[in-house]
Amino acid sequence: MTLRSARERLFQTLAFELGGLALVAPVYGFVMGASAVASVLLVAATSVVVMAWSPIHNHLFDAAEWRLSGRVASERPSRLRLVHAVSHEVSTTIVTVPVIMLVGGHGFWESLIIDIAMTLFYVAYTYVFHVAYDWWRPVRPAAAALAAVADVAPDDASHRRLRPLTEPDQPTDANLPRLAERTVPE
Prior knowledge:
Elements lengths: L5 H27 L3 H34 L8 H27 L3 H29 L4 H8 L3 E3 L7 E3 L11 H6 L5
Antiparallel strand pairs: 1-2
Helix pairs in contact: 1-2, 1-4, 2-3, 3-4
């Protein structure tokens, strides 16, 4: 599997959040009659809360899955991925509605509707953003694969057992596709 570097992920996250802020804040301000400053503050506050909550949710879900099934997240079946996604959105709503109430000065029901509207927007925005981002800054499979699999490659029988690479460390036209398909050991 080819991965983006931590630096690239940070850039991607910042670009995503700034793009979302630039799109959502004006719409919120227009619909709710809020000032630009109040709109940016509300969207930024919810963004920070979601960025803080997401790794906590993912860790708790992954730990529960491991404890109940002995399965790691990368082996998660599709149905459980759906449960993960729904639990993430529901739990995110639980942690962001109070922020919208506090920062935006809205009541519970109004905050819930705002949160649902933002969630629906972000589902579509996430899809479009990542398609555009992957086109704009594609992962370089050859370089990433070589960096990721330096001296080991997965055994054909299991991705958990490793064996040394049989091909040379430097890419050639013959072995480059095989190097790019390798996964990073867990």
